[in-house]
Amino acid sequence: MAQATGQITETERPQNELGGIVIAAHAFTDDGICNDTANVGDFVNNPDLYAIEINTWPPNNKAKSILDGTNTSWKRPAPHHQPTSIRSSDGKHLGKSQDPDSNAIGGRFTWIKMSSPSIESLRQAFLNPESRICLDPEPPPGVHTRIHSISIQGTKFLADQTVRLSPHLNCIIGGRGSGKSMLFESLRIGLRGEMAIKDTDHVANQQISRLYGTFTLNTRIELHVNHAGLDDRFVVENRDQPARIENREVEDPPTVFRQIKPLIFSQEEITELSSRKKTLLNFLIIWQEKDWNRIAKVPMT
Known about the structure:
By secondary structure, this protein is α/β, with parallel strands linked by helices.
């Protein structure tokens, strides 16, 4: 629910009864909630006010001090954070416009990251704006390596399928024997440009061997991976050959794969790792290398 006038108290009942979200529209205009100190109480003491609309980005000094809480009169008490800022246009006409002050559809807009459009997704975005809300003309590009998708064909265990993955957190859920581990190991071998671990007693190699046991003459595992600004297609078709880069010629494929530096651990590997203290410590040092280096530079008192 968007509220354009200064008083927002009357929005609480429908918000609470219907599970909506209160957004203060035109917050810094003449009648906006942030343009009159008489509305400080509504702003500060109403945690159901999740977001406020601003017309200008970056905001002017007055707006910025209210938005970030440096203006202590408008700062919400802990544990409540300041309302999230959004931009939108009223859509008063259908003409397209690049003018940010225009009320044409799309004249002002907000990038919101959510798994699927819903009120609850919007609520979570407002509660975590640093990672989910972007008011810039373009969203920040993803700089980390990501797997766009994995396709599996022709195995004895898994049905032919393509699984598309989020660039963020992914969670694979399924019952025992549904193929979670096989999918996981398919990712592992698809990201290796050299043959698997030589130690035949190693848990990882045992897992990989199980996957290879499901291969047929028609097996094909294909990963679409973005890394270092490149979109590559990694393919495994033969249990006796490592993954290869299908979409371009590469002089030294193993080096390309090693630069991706995937860290993959199955449940059995984690259990084994936790039982070997020295190995576990080495793993933690590698995982937190930057933080360890930073801590090491801090003088002890």
